[in-house]
Amino acid sequence: MASTFDIAQARSRFPALKQDQVFLDNAGGSQVLDSIIDSLHAYLSRTNVQLGATYNVAKSCNAAYDEAYRAAAKFINASPDEISVGVSTTQLLHNLSTALDFQPGDELILSKLNHEANISPWVRIAQRLGLMVKWWSAVDNVNPVCDVEELKSLLSEKTRLVTCPHAPNITGTITRVKEIADVVHSFPRALLCVDGVALAPHRQVDVKALDVDFYAFSWYKVYGPHIAQLYASSRIHSQISPLGHYFKGTETLDLRLNLASTNYELAQTIPRILEYFGSDVASAWEQIATYEEKLQGILLQYLNSNERITVYGEPSASKERRVPVISFTVKGMKSQAVVEEVERRSQFGFRNGHMYSHRLVKEVLGLEDVDDGVVRVSMLHYNTEDEIKGLVKVLEEIIVPN
Ligand SMILES: Cc1ncc(COP(=O)(O)O)c(C=O)c1O
Question: What predicted TM-score, i.e. pTM, was given to this entire model?
Answer without folding.
Answer: 0.98
